[in-house]
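Q: Can I borrow your eye for a moment on a structure tokenisation matter? Would you mind producing a protein record, from residues through to fold? Write it directly below this note and I will take it from there.
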Amino acid sequence: MAEQLDPEEIFERAVAEGERRLDQSTLELASTSFIAGFTVLFGVVALGIVEGLVEPTAGHAARVAGALAFAPGVVFLVAGRTELFNENFSDPAAAAVDRGTAAVPSLLRLWTLTFVFNLLGGGLLALVFAVDGAIPPVGADALQRFAEETAHRPARTWFTRGVAGGALVSLLSFLVVSVRGDGSRLWLAYAVGVMLALGPFDHVVVSILHVVLGTLLGATVGVRRLAAMTAVVTAGNLVGGLGLVTVTHVTQAMGAAE
């Protein structure tokens, strides 16, 4: 059995990975974030198609099938070392703790550019998939239903699901640096992808792109509703990703070092 890392060792690896992420050039960060945006959209499309195909015969079990189809999109993100908003909370925050307040501008730059270019990359591919016939009709119908159901939930539901989604995706970042083998990292990514879609828990980039694609395919979602959802889910992701996961893991490592 492989030797397990203790919390202090995991924190040191997280700092090293966080340093790499904070020190990316603007061009590299924009590119990797753009790639992450359209990469995750492939998972969203796969979820819609599989759920639409399976639902007539399997009913509610179609959600499980859709989650299994979505998860490879998260594996692609980890394998490609791309930047997904919220997934990059844990490691850069660990590096920021190590660097001190001087790291705050780099941290804000990382999160802002990641958020913007995730949505740009995914939004561009959503326009491609919105072309008539690009997605099978059953998949388009499933994506439309999801968009309308998600966009018309109460704000408190967006927020609580955003907290859960933020915690889950930030946990992935922590787990990836806590294991030694590439195979283990990819299986962890797949497991998190299944759980994220199965909830469904709201990750602001994934959920907003999901709703945008459904809207382009015919769902009725207003711009104000989409903007409100973006703001509330982002707040939930920050609470779950930074508050529940990142802060507790940093304090765990600091406590172990004493």
